[in-house]
Fold this protein.
Amino acid sequence: MTRTLESIKAPVAKEMEEFEQKFRASMKTRVLLLDKIMSYIVKRKGKQMRPIFVFLSAGATGTINESTYRGASLIELVHTASLVHDDVVDNSNYRRSFFSVNALWKNKIAVLVGDFLLTRGLFLALEHKDYELLGICTEAVKEMSEGELLQMEKARQLDIIEDIYYEIIRQKTASLIASCCAIGASSSNASPEWIAKMKKFGECVGMAFQIKDDLFDYGDDEIGKPVGIDIKEKKMTLPLIYSLSKASWLEKRKIIGIVKNNSEDANKIKHVIDFVKKSGGIDYANQKMTEYYKQAMTILDELPSSEYKTSLSDLVQFTIERKN
């Protein structure tokens, strides 16, 4: 049975509480408008999975210390900045059922807010000379930007092959979770070998996490994101990519035509979802998600037993069994 996020978080619950205070303090500013927006962002934060990965990775590979807190803040600031910018790029008015920053304060201010969050994170690392943490994080920012642009480039053709899909999700999603685990290990003074291993562990978790997210699009209930939202947004995800690779030329042309030209038609979207289910796309994506999960577990198995390691294992399980 999957543990709750609260029980998984238990070994680092005290650290997470302290992190909350440090994180809020790091977002303080003398500019009244900016401070108001920062307060709004803090109030609508999500599950904070990324800082949890940082603290558990630090505990599993060494000792949690002050640089771990700064590493977690750096990751959370960069992640929040990417979400604010994503909402502008996607012209989205909502984020986790709340109004997005751009919906309330318009695009110009949202872009500047994202810039502030990003530079605040970078400055936090620089003022404490956390150069290694900064290096790990800035690499993730570069990867995330490249992944987003690669997806935009390929979306125009609607003919993404499986390898390109993996590269997109590795850069867009997995790179940040990889950096969480690498930053946790680096902050605890783990060896370069274990920093690299934890980075790979986080990457495998991120890949499994994103494939799970893509599978929600084909669910029978409107849990998490609405069913068919990726198809409406013309995003090519693994279940559809696999199904198209097995389809006849005529069927492939028909399905791509629907995604390209009829993505607002509920009946047509249902036809695409049914096509993917019948073609084995769901089973194939689940199989690939499980492969990444097993790769992550193989790395984790090498660590000595501890409550942090147990919680990391359960957190990975949680990410692939979550309902939203």
